[in-house]
Write a structure and sequence with these properties.
It holds the Pfam family JetD_C. InterPro entries: DUF3322, JetD_C, UCP028408. This is Wadjet anti-phage system protein JetD domain-containing protein. This protein is an alpha/beta fold. The chain has 3 domains: about 5-100, no CATH class; about 105-210; about 215-390, Dna Topoisomerase Vi A Subunit, Chain: A, domain 2. Helix content is about 45%, strand content about 15%. The chain has 18 helices and 11 strands. The strands form 3 sheets. A 6-stranded mixed β-sheet has the order 5-4-7-6-8-9. Strands 1-3-2 form a 3-stranded antiparallel β-sheet. It has a two-stranded antiparallel sheet with strand order 10-11. Strand 2 and strand 3 (about 80-90) form a beta hairpin. Helix 1 (about 5-20) crosses helix 4 and helix 5 (about 100-120) packs antiparallel against helix 6 (about 125-135). The termini are far apart.
């Protein structure tokens, strides 16, 4: 005998998987759950249980939770019995009430319809707008009224001023600040992209027309002559455009991923160190004084470290890697950690053959799944002499 709670559990599963598609009147209605009928033998075997089962279904009917449809059956040896046949839900509101989501559902549905009406005239593809709003059902249901109004106003303003060039702090929407916007970037990007019909793969700033903060890099000048050419500064963090304007001519530039590694470098004649923050190597070609310098790269020995090397070499073909080889990796086996989300690109054309083999071996788990060696784990007394040797090689 299937109890109301057992069927309600099925209904909750249906709710979780389908309620987003029901916003704005979607879905196929009514939604019915058949109630299996007990056999005459089951009734005779457990009359008390049968009676409790009937009373539970009667309580559901009396409470108006959906609509219980009844039928009269005449099982053998029992006689006529009025039993539930079907649990009937006329619409999404009825399902929401049955699973305890009535208030959240009503709020989400009203807001969905409001935003659809507000933006459908701007959207080149209303179906895509609906899909974006449905993906955001949690925000539609949970945001406080004032927060939801601000969110809608921000998206509205950005859609009507698609190339404002403002910094986030300058948005003329009352009650928001950069922290508020930072917590809602994904939602704002998705909604603006849907309203404007933009490529969903574009980043936040490309979609919103807001100005990104300038890319910044940190530079250390390890030679007194280089520091003199930079007005005595030896440790500089600034926008890339300002670093590009420095009148320096280093003979060699070391690019490292890790800030603390870069800070540990000692003075070496003619050498500068760029702390590139991983994939920020994409901007190094904007530094004109790199053109005549030898470039050495030292990153983590993992799939992403080798992918970054490949990206850097695509811009600066003569980049030499140091401490990023199989021998270094195997010599520090005890220091390995796990790379949770490896770079899945199977081939990077700018990697040299031995680097490409290492990337493939790491990607395919030759030494176990996700093995990696972070540059910061290599003992400094092992690393520094090898760095110095690499800097001295022409």
């Amino acid at each position: 005998m299937r109890s109301p709670e057992a069927l309600r559990a099925r209904l909750r599963a249906t709710w979780r998987s389908r309620h987003r598609s029901w916003l704005g009147g979607g879905g196929v209605w009514p939604h019915d759950l058949p109630v299996p009928r007990p056999s005459g033998e089951a009734i005779l075997r457990d009359w008390a249980g049968f009676d409790a089962w009937l009373r539970a279904w009667q309580a559901i009917d009396d409470a108006g939770i959906g609509e219980v449809e009844w039928d009269v059956v005449t099982p053998r040896r029992v006689g006529p019995q009025r039993v539930p046949m079907r649990w009937h839900f006329a619409d999404a509101c009825a399902v929401a009430a049955a699973v305890g989501e009535a208030q959240a559902w009503a709020r989400a549905d009203v807001r969905f319809r409001m935003l659809r009406a507000r933006w459908s005239g701007l959207a080149p593809d209303p179906a895509r707008l609906d899909a974006a709003l449905r993906r955001s059902s949690a925000a539609l249901a949970e945001y406080a009224d004032d927060d939801f109004a601000r969110l809608a106003d921000v998206v509205d303003w950005l859609c009507r001023h698609p190339q404002s060039g403002l910094f986030e702090r300058q948005l003329p929407v009352e009650g928001i600040d950069s922290k508020w916007l930072g917590r809602r970037r994904g939602l704002v990007r998705d909604w603006v992209a849907a309203v404007r019909g933009l490529d969903p793969g574009l980043d936040f700033h490309a979609v919103t027309g807001l100005r990104p903060p300038p890319a910044r890099m940190r530079l250390r000048l390890l030679d007194p002559a280089l520091r003199a050419a930079a007005g005595g500064l030896g440790d500089i963090e600034s926008p890339v455009a300002e670093l590009a304007a420095l009148a320096i001519d280093p003979a060699c530039v070391v690019v490292v991923e890790n800030r603390d590694t870069g800070l540990a470098f000692e003075d070496v004649e003619g050498v500068a160190v760029l702390m590139s923050r991983g994939y920020a190597v994409d901007v190094v070609e904007r530094l004109p004084w790199l053109a005549a310098a030898r470039i050495v790269y030292w990153g983590d020995i993992d799939t992403h470290g080798l992918a970054i090397l490949a990206r850097l070499r695509a811009r600066l073909p003569d980049v030499r890697a140091v401490l990023m080889d199989e021998d270094t990796f195997l010599a520090h086996r005890i220091l390995w950690s796990e790379e949770v989300a490896p770079d899945r690109v199977s081939a990077h054309p700018t990697l040299r053959p031995e680097e490409a083999r290492l990337h493939a071996d790491l990607l395919h788990g030759r030494w176990g799944p996700g093995r990696r060696l972070e540059q910061e784990r290599i003992p400094w007394d092992h690393a520094w002499p090898r760095i110095v040797a690499a800097l001295g090689e022409g």
